[in-house]
Sequence to fold (816 residues):
Amino acid sequence: MIVNSLLDTDFYKFTMGQVIFRNYQDVSVMSRFQCRTPGVPLAQVINLDELDAELTHVTKLRLNNSELHYLRGTNEYGARMFDEDYLQFLRDLQLPKYFLSFVGDNIKLDFVGPWSKVTYWETFALSIINELYYRTLMSKGKRFFQETLEASAICNLSDKVETLRACPGLTFTDFGTRRRFSRGWQDYIVGTLAEEMPEQFKGTSNVALAMKYGLTPMGTSAHEMFMVGAGIAPQTDEGIRESHNDTLRVWWKQYGQGLSVALTDTFGSGFFFEDFSRSQAQSWKGLRHDSGDPLQFGRKAIDFYRSHGVDPKDKMIVFSDGLSPKLMVYLYRKLNEEINVTFGWGTNLTNDFGFDPLSLVVKPVEANGNGLVKLSDNLNKAVGTKEDIARYKRIFRHNHEERAVCIS
Amino acid sequence: MIVNSLLDTDFYKFTMGQVIFRNYQDVSVMSRFQCRTPGVPLAQVINLDELDAELTHVTKLRLNNSELHYLRGTNEYGARMFDEDYLQFLRDLQLPKYFLSFVGDNIKLDFVGPWSKVTYWETFALSIINELYYRTLMSKGKRFFQETLEASAICNLSDKVETLRACPGLTFTDFGTRRRFSRGWQDYIVGTLAEEMPEQFKGTSNVALAMKYGLTPMGTSAHEMFMVGAGIAPQTDEGIRESHNDTLRVWWKQYGQGLSVALTDTFGSGFFFEDFSRSQAQSWKGLRHDSGDPLQFGRKAIDFYRSHGVDPKDKMIVFSDGLSPKLMVYLYRKLNEEINVTFGWGTNLTNDFGFDPLSLVVKPVEANGNGLVKLSDNLNKAVGTKEDIARYKRIFRHNHEERAVCIS
Fold:
């Protein structure tokens, strides 16, 4: 089976998971699978029974004792960052029921239930659908076609290593679990990078692989925190607007500086930079960029910090949108003298076999009955009903009208 | 071990072997290993004990019953082309003693004894030394270095397949046993080409692989026939000059038209085209090119046939020197409308891992006490003492002063 451990997920599911467990136990959500890449007949490529079996298998998984030890022992972001009551919750965690059907060419896959459990479905559903899709594409070719693609993926990885070695100050992290070509391939990449460039490869978001290779598990929080935060706030314009900073404060309360990298684009980075206070600018370690023009964002962040009397050299940006080695080197060279930059590298790292990548997401679409919204700095990544998006654009004075192809 | 079957050799060893068995049982030869690539400290790279063990292993091999059946059943060049007495000789064949030592950076490896047995050493010694050499180069890199080279070799093979598919009339044969990166890699290539391009890939010179994959074993004769032929002829200028055509006649007597592809460059193609008679031009199927400018050779061959009233469209050239897909496509496009061309593809097919190829040979250097000579159309491929080469150049009016890097 594709997923064989509940640790085969992104670390941020646990860091968010604890905050949800602690603060939002009574929140019900619906999360929904969506393919953002147009014109991909997923339901024609993937077999329904196989997908169903893979998802069912995940509902049968439990964290074992060693896995719980690993989480309990995690101290990279502060001593004993996972409290015992949360670990007990995880010990008993069973993923809730899913609702799967094929509608025309599309996969309809919803997850409904308490946010504290539904949240874990995201990465499992994505890595399963991704792997089944590419497995089918591979199986359509003959043996040598498959072996050539595997070989070209190794050569591509080797080229990546060479390109990044030529820029020795540049550091990065594997963020590719959800978009990986396959579990085995991500494992190969992570093991290889750990061996080949231990100084530059700082870790992986995949907890199972971090555990396997003795790497640092990496990640903080996702759009989901802000989206649900807005959905359960008083549904006035002001309530929704203020929810964003409330979410940041809840986060800080749980983890303090250790995990204080703020995701900036849920409702547009324009709003973020207005809303993020001088004291937050001072105390938080840095910012994550996940949509819109990355260089422009970097310049904006530098200006932002300076305008608050903060030296950007004391802060960091984590870039995680549509990265390639060339883009990473470019951003590093353009920005790193003024602000520390690092990279959370997804799709292009773990799915570079020559097939077009898919942009798949599982996002919460409803919390306690209210529709949820993500705007981002690329409206092709927006989530929500047309009306809700329009309302949020107004509330957050969103003016990023860019629409870029989603490649991650 | 590297060689595990006496069929893991070139088919021409058996076609020549039968002619030697039938006609030259009393000839003693000394064959010698030589590395034509300058500046390669083979004895520093290869381990003496390992090489010794590999060579000793070859002396312990015998043809088994199925292998003898395979040879007995070979009918691609005429019914029952291998006579029963020769097959009985092969059944009992044990390779003679070898003389191995390391002298400075070089491997000294000689084979002395009856030509009828010594002849078989050539390909085994070459493929063993080649594989040990590249195995050491590989072992100097880490795991990912090795896996990247393996992957790039697969990608290179895939590119070759694509390039040649774009030229669907072009046919070729694997001639890469002696220069292969490894036995396993040649096996992979031959199996893959048989699957991927059965219309264009016409067979392999490697008898074990032809047997394994049901392909046509390919090959006729080598310089060795002409070199020894000259060495055992009356050692007058005339005797040496006439030996070349004697060798061709002995060959024709054994195999007739079936194997009538004449190697043209032993003493220079200039002499060959003077010496090859009108009736040979009419009866022999074609010519093999193994040194010098291939396009120029093709034009010369076309003119040669026309001057003898032969339509070149009824004849063929087998190119086998320093081939690449690009060169093959070029020669095919330039020549195939006027004369049939095909390719015996060696080094670049079976040793394209990114390392520089080695030009290794095992050639007879003495027969019945006389020094042997090969001139070829590339003096960097010449064999023999300085004096003998000078004498042969005079005897054969050799004027190919070209010296090209030996890549095969």
Remarks:
- Chain B has a mean pLDDT of 96.
- The first strand of chain B starts at residue 28 and ends at 35.
- The longest helix of chain B spans residues 143-165.
- Residues 180 and 307 of chain B are 40 Å apart (CA to CA).
